[in-house]
Design goal:
Number of domains: 1
Strand order of the largest sheet: 2-1-5-6
Distance between the termini: 30 Å
Structural class: alpha+beta
Strand content: 5-15%
Helix content: 40-55%
Radius of gyration: 20 Å
Largest sheet: 4 strands, antiparallel
Length: 375
């Protein structure tokens, strides 16, 4: 997903969940900041680099294909952008190495999603925002894995957009190009994706790079042949999935705001959006690659307050000018980094506990695995 959903739509979900305008701003800022908090940024402000929640293109391009570099990539992208759906999934007739990658495929409503939301309970608004980023991406990024893998993330030329036409649907062949100077052109069904690389561990095969930005657009429906599915056709309905993501965020945020009770996967708060359903669905289905203006207008109509532009440097001075480490921990960024480290530690530990070493070893004895096979 992009800023339109992680920032502005998350604000709207938080407001419908009962948070105040200021609280909504903290939550949505944190949700969007997940896409900005790189090791480069952390080095600039003197923060721990291991709290990174994303990687810049230059960082990825300079990353090696050695096991430690691959594990670092997997820790970041699986923890925050491609949360595994089932760490104990089974697929007959495949090797252990393939199975480890297959188990990292992102899907909504998995055991790790419940753990992510529960992990934010009783913590900061920053933790809530991080959880909402992770939750939303399970819907947009499903069927791809947050580890470089040709055998899992590759696609082929069979890629079609499915467009509603009266009472039926019309199919249009999607053309992918690899030039970084080009922009996506939905009118011509031309999109930019990562070039094919035959190396299993190439960063070009990370996440949904081979499908370009299609998973990040709420309006699109498409069908394709994923490598992990033996190139059998699968249909992705983003308008329906984005609506589920939005209503699940409302449900999750109400749980976090309440501070008690239980969080269950597969639950959605559709009642909260009933008065606004037509407007929300209209924004989601509108054919545009950037919905920021529409989500922002909707959010401001809900709260009656101005939603300020996202500024990556907004809290930088506060953090850098703190007198000592303990004071830094109490700043906005300090709370974000604490929550980010907790999320990454939890996910990495669960991956390791499942017997999967793609995210590296976990020696955090404070964490206990609650995700047991069959439960």
């Amino acid at each position: 997903m992009q800023k339109d959903f992680h920032y502005y739509a998350t604000y709207c979900a938080a407001y419908l969940a009962g948070f105040s305008h200021d609280e909504c701003m903290d939550i949505c800022y944190s949700a969007q900041f997940v896409d900005c908090c790189s090791a480069t940024y952390l080095s600039k402000i003197g923060a721990p680099r291991n709290a990174a929640t994303t990687q810049l293109q230059l960082e990825l391009m300079s990353a090696g294909s050695d096991i430690l570099s691959l594990q670092n990539i997997t820790r970041i992208w699986s923890s925050f952008h491609f949360l595994p759906g089932d760490l104990y999934a089974y697929r007959a007739g495949c090797t252990g190495i393939y199975l480890s990658k297959y188990r990292l495929i992102c899907r909504p409503n998995g055991m790790l999603l419940a753990a992510t939301v529960r992990n934010a309970m009783g913590r900061s608004l920053q933790a809530a925002g991080i959880a909402m980023h992770v939750l939303a991406d399970t819907w947009a990024h499903q069927n791809f894995a947050g580890t470089p893998s040709l055998v899992i993330n590759n696609t082929d030329d069979y890629f079609y957009e499915i467009m509603p036409l009266d009472d039926a649907y019309d199919e249009h062949r999607i053309t992918f190009r690899h030039s970084t100077t080009l922009k996506d052109d939905p009118d011509e069904h031309i999109y930019v994706n990562s070039p094919y690389q035959g190396s299993e561990h190439s960063i070009m095969n990370l996440g949904h790079g081979r499908a370009g930005h299609l998973p990040d657009y709420s309006f699109i429906r498409y069908k394709y042949l994923p490598a992990w599915g033996d190139y059998e056709e699968i249909v992705k309905d983003n308008p329906a999935d984005y609506l589920r993501a939005f209503t699940q965020m409302i449900y999750a945020l109400k749980y976090l705001r309440r501070g008690s009770g239980s969080f269950e996967v597969g639950r959605y708060d559709t009642d909260a959006m009933i008065p606004h359903r037509a407007q929300i669905e209209g924004i989601i289905r509108k054919r545009q690659t950037d919905s920021c203006d529409d989500w922002r207008s909707f959010g401001q109509s809900l709260s009656g307050c101005e939603i300020e532009d996202f500024d990556i440097d907004k809290y930088q001075a506060e953090y850098m000018q703190a007198e000592n480490a303990s004071r830094r921990d109490e700043t906005f960024l300090g709370k974000f980094l604490t929550a980010a480290l907790s999320q990454k530690s939890m996910v990495t530990h669960e991956i390791f506990t499942s017997g999967n070493l793609l995210a590296g070893f976990s020696i955090d004895g404070r964490l206990r695995s609650s995700l047991k096979k069959g439960k």
